[in-house]
Amino acid sequence: MKVSIDGSLLDGSQARIPVVDHGLLYGDGVFEGIRIYGGAVFKLDAHLRRLSVSASVLGLELPGGLAALRATLLATARAFGEAEAYARLVVTRGDGPLGVDPTSCPRPRTICIVDRIGLFPPEKVERGLELVTSSVRRPTPDALEPRVKSLNYLGSVLAKQEARRQGADDAVLLNTAGAVAEASVANVFVVRDGRLATPPASDGALEGITRESVLAIAARLGIAAAERTLGRIDLLGADEVFLTGTGARIVPVRSLDGRPIGAGGAGPVTARLQAAFAGYVKEFATPWA
Ligand code: PMP
Fold it and tell me: What span, in angstroms and rounded, lies between the C-alpha atoms of 270 and 234?
């Protein structure tokens, strides 16, 4: 693992930050999870744009602006030196006295971590994931805006914990109106009669970069796709369900709450999208070398 803290490159084991960083004390900060394929960063500009939107909602100034963050990410990836990797770019509020007031923190902190990617085991991806419906709801935007990728991930942590306790792989989170929002750290898609649907961001989904990529690939392949409100019933009645995320890419779902979905494994539409995604990532690649 290689880490950059405010521009200083370190081995993972040497990386330290003060305990008074408000990112730790209050979850006051933003982040991106970014994939490196074949020595190139996938959709770097889209990730930087999303980070900048998240930061502006928090009134958090990005140290050195997007150009500095981009340079930090590429330098950390280069120092790590492996062609396949995962990068975590984090901007915290920085150090300050105890107390939630962000105006007491004069300098935001930039952290970039690049490491090997931890994935679902290949047999899971092959067979499909077992999901449960979480008792944890995605909050309404006036409580905690789900479109902001902040360091507040307790909902996702609790939903994942609930799934693991039940022997499942991941959880579907509903919003407070009972509509499907997303999985713990991935977006949800359904396929019915050859057509794709995924919940709109306004239903509590993060505007995932992989989600956006799948919608673009579907358009190219002539697969009809819509962003629309989905209930649990739409998942249970789907021909295929899959999750999308930077880490997971496109992963089929085999069951929800113990009820099978489709025939298990990747259905025909999911398989087409998976195959096309492998080529698509090469089109949006920023080499770190
Ligand atoms: N939802 C949440 C809550 C996430 O944390 C992630 C992972 N960033 C996603 C969806 C998927 O987004 P992306 O495709 O950009 O990784």
Answer: 16
